[in-house]
């Protein structure tokens, strides 16, 4: 048995090496499919314009290719770039996103979701709107609310032109008057639920609340008549 093993050992060793090389080659060239989540990047947004619709931040991509190439692909190295250079206000559809994927040669995309993206560009506008003060609760018995004012009483909103058309005012956070018996002031945040608009500068205001004593009817000498 030993003689059979050692006989022509050089040739047998070369055969083994060749077989291993062939196996590694076949395994390395076997085509695989791998799924990735790839970032979608918008570049070169024209000045004075903004994106005024929801854009997916990630795209699901299935990539096919030789195993040796796929092993070298890192999710951090691939992305889909959409160039907005020269676009005017309006809706633009970018299709065949797979052609915008920076893949090494030898790999191809077999599935992509979403396969296209719509980008709506609008001009950035500014609008000044009044501040509505939201009061809750009641002062202590014998006291009432006098003058209430916001300083400033208006605020600038900036954002997509179409959204600003529907913005008529903003509201403060609740100002609780429960149990108070004296005038006070405080800084409160402002509320704005815009999807494509925001406060340009300030997002707070000072609320000044005057609390006054309220005389009862009996104290005024106007009790019930018998």
From TrEMBL:
CDD domains: YbbR
Protein name, as recorded: YbbR-like domain-containing protein
InterPro entries found in the cross-reference section: c-di-AMP_regulator, YbbR
Bilayer-spanning residue ranges: none
Gene3D superfamilies assigned to the protein according to its UniProt record, in alphabetical order: 2.170.120.30, YbbR-like domain
